[in-house]
Structure to design on (462 residues):
């Protein structure tokens, strides 16, 4: 149905752009052929001869393209030659006009988009391998696509940003991953992406807009109630709506970030096991990060900072907050609050000298790296955990040499990949999180003995 509508759209655009050029060609050909057939030729036996319509059409065809084959089928009279001159100029002008219009048509963005939609729908329809529909090709979507490619799983990608779809064409994926620049919230685009295709295994929505993610999830549930839907959401209101839908898994990157951070501080053995399962760089099974005990300084109290504060506070970890715009009623009376930018003076006021560590969780990488420099200068022994917002800044964060870097797009992609590739692993991690640390240590010992601490190869090198 979708491909047919796209074909209709292509036909409409072609007719709209080429209607006048085609009418111009038809008019010039009609006048030229009729005039040539009516022009008297050379006299034979005292009677003027006339060219047949077929010969007139044949002559005008090669004359209009400025190709000369001579005067056929016999020599022309002066009247015919004069009319041939008229046909030559009018035909060439009409063809130039038509060719120029055709070039403009193939460069028209609406025509290109419609043709891309037709080709995209056909590629998806012909696919008989299992695939995932991925809505949103930002940092998290790109990382997830890389992880799926490393596991030879196909993905069909929808994104409203044309530059991201262009970048998709130069990725060295191991499997075909067709992409379309379109609004994934439109049902016709979800149908074109194969939401009803029998080989479609799941739909993942990872746009940066929670409203759009909710819309896509709702549309997908109506179009295919049996399809597994994984939806990124950072809004409590949207999560309530999504959890009411059947077969929809909600992934909150801020909640994952706070959970991983708590595990690193209070459950290092569990954090190590999870990082080993997802194949994090430089992680060795049974060698967790050594995090000092004590109070922590949290720089930034946005949505992510709020989640981190609530998580750590619920588990008895002391937190001191630095943020210029935080509401004192939100943090509580027992929390030390410094209402300022995270610079030297603010860190001094928060007591960085005796803090176990510092968490920079602001929504700009430059602010996080700047705060990291201040922490290093004031207390080099403090454990430094930094939030990385953009995957493009990976080189700068590698150079910063923080003790722990948490990139929410990477952690989100890894969590979703676990749900798609091996969902039982996440169930195991969640089960261990509710048990005593000794059980995690026992499992790690058993894994080391059974596997020789080889990487789990669940995720990817990114």
């Amino acid at each position: 149905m979708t491909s047919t509508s796209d074909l209709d759209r292509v036909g409409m655009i072609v007719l709209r752009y080429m209607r006048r050029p085609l009418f111009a060609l038809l008019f010039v050909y009609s006048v030229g052929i009729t005039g040539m057939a009516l022009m008297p030729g050379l006299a034979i036996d005292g009677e003027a001869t006339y060219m047949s319509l077929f010969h007139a059409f044949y002559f005008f065809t090669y004359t209009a393209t400025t190709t000369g084959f001579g005067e056929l089928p016999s020599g022309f009279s002066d009247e015919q030659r004069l009319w041939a001159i008229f046909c030559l100029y009018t035909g060439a002008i009409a063809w130039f006009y038509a060719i120029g219009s055709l070039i403009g048509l193939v460069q028209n963005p609406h025509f290109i988009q419609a043709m891309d939609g037709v080709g995209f729908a056909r590629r998806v329809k012909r696919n008989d391998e299992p695939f995932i529909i991925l809505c949103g090709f930002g940092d998290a979507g790109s990382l997830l696509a890389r992880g799926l490619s490393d596991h030879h799983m196909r993905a069909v990608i929808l994104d409203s940003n044309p530059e991201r779809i262009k970048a998709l064409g130069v990725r060295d994926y191991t499997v075909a991953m067709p992409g379309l620049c379109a609004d994934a919230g439109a049902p016709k685009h979800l149908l074109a992406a194969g939401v009803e295709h029998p080989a479609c295994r799941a739909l993942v929505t990872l746009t940066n807009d929670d409203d759009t993610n909710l819309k896509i999830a709702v549309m997908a549930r109506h179009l295919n109630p049996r399809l597994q839907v994984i939806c990124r959401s950072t809004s409590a209101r949207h999560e309530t709506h999504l959890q009411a839908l059947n077969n929809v898994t909600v992934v909150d990157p801020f909640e994952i970030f706070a959970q991983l951070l708590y595990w690193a501080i209070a459950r290092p053995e569990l954090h190590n096991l999870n990082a080993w399962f997802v194949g994090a760089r430089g992680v060795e099974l049974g060698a967790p990060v050594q995090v000092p005990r004590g109070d922590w300084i949290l720089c930034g109290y946005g949505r992510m900072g709020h989640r981190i504060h609530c998580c750590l506070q619920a588990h008895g970890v002391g937190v001191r907050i630095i943020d210029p715009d935080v509401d004192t009623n939100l943090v509580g009376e027992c929390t030390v609050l410094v209402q300022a930018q995270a610079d030297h003076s603010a860190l001094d006021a928060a007591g960085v000298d005796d803090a176990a560590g510092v968490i920079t969780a602001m929504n700009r990488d430059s602010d996080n790296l700047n705060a990291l420099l201040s922490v290093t200068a004031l207390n080099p022994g403090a454990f430094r955990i930094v939030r990385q917002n953009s995957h493009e800044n990976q080189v700068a964060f590698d150079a910063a040499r923080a003790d722990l870097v948490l990139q929410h797009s990477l952690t989100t992609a890894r969590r979703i990949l676990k749900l798609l590739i091996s969902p039982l692993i996440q169930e195991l991690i969640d089960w261990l999180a509710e048990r005593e640390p000794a059980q995690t240590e026992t499992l790690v010992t058993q894994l080391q003995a059974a596997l020789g601490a080889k990487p789990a190869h669940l995720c990817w090198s990114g």
Q: What stands out?
A: The chain has a mean pLDDT of 85. The CA atoms of residues 12 and 111 lie 10 Å apart. The two ends are 38 Å apart (CA to CA). The longest helix spans residues 2-38.
